[in-house]
Automatic annotation (TrEMBL):
Residue ranges crossing the lipid bilayer per the database entry: 7-28, 40-58, 70-92, 98-119
Protein name as it appears in the record: Signal peptide protein
Keyword set includes tRNA processing: no
SUPFAM superfamilies tied to this protein: Cytochrome c oxidase subunit I-like (SSF81442)
Record flagged with keyword Plastid: no
Lineage: Bacteria, Pseudomonadati, Pseudomonadota, Alphaproteobacteria, Hyphomicrobiales
Keywords: Membrane, Transmembrane, Transmembrane helix
InterPro entries with a match to the protein in the record: Cyt_c_oxase-like_su1_sf (IPR036927)
Origin superkingdom: Bacteria
C-alpha cells in the first residue's frame, strides 16, 4: 500500500476514535449541543480520509510525487483545526467562529488539491497492480 494511503487510514481511525468519543459523551450526558462537531469529525475526519486512503491504495500511480503529501497536510490540518474550533464554538465560545471559517477554507483547499490529483493524468511508468485471478 502506498505510504500516503497508510497515512490517511491511520489519521482516519484517530478521527473515528475522537468522533465516537464525542458521540458517547453526548449520549451519556444527554447534551447534544456539539452534534455538529461530532458529525463533521466522523464524516470529514473518518469517512472522507478513509476514502482518500482507499483511492490512493487503488491508484498507486496517483500516490507518487509531492502533491498527495500536500493534499494530506492541507486537508488534515484543516479538518483537525476545524474539529477543535467547531467543538469549542458549539460548547459556547463564539470567539472561535473566525477560526472555524478559516479552517473550513483550508479543508476546501485540501479537497481542491485532491480534485486536481483525480483529474490530472497519472504519471507514466508506474504500472497498475495486477488484479488477483478469480
Ligand atoms: C458509537 C458511535 C456513535 C455514537 C454513540 C453516536 C452518537 C450520536 C448522538 C448522541 C447524536 C445526536 C443525535 C441528535 O441530537 O439528534 C449523533 C448524531 C450524528 N451522528 Fe453519531 N454517533 C456515533 C457514531 C457516528 C458515526 C461513525 C458517524 C458517521 C460516520 C456519525 C454521524 C452522525 C451524524 C451525521 C449526526 C447528526 C444527525 C442529525 O443531526 O440528524 N455518528 N450521534
Amino acid at each position: 500500500m502506498p505510504r500516503i494511503a497508510d497515512l490517511f487510514f491511520k489519521t482516519a481511525i484517530l478521527f473515528l476514535v475522537v468522533g465516537i468519543g464525542i458521540g458517547l459523551m453526548m449520549a451519556i450526558s444527554g447534551n447534544h449541543d456539539v452534534v455538529g462537531a461530532h458529525a463533521h469529525i466522523n464524516l470529514l475526519g473518518w469517512v472522507t480520509s478513509a476514502l482518500f486512503g482507499g483511492y490512493y491504495a487503488l491508484n498507486p500511480a496517483k500516490a507518487e510525487g509531492r502533491l498527495p503529501m500536500a493534499h494530506y497536510a492541507v486537508y488534515t490540518l484543516g479538518v483537525a483545526v476545524m474539529s477543535v474550533s467547531l467543538f469549542m464554538l458549539l460548547s459556547g465560545n463564539p470567539a472561535m467562529e473566525p477560526i472555524v471559517a478559516l479552517s473550513s477554507i483550508v479543508t476546501l483547499l485540501g479537497v481542491l488539491v485532491f480534485a486536481w490529483i483525480v483529474f490530472a493524468p497519472a504519471r507514466q511508468g508506474i504500472a497498475p497492480r495486477p488484479m488477483a485471478a478469480e
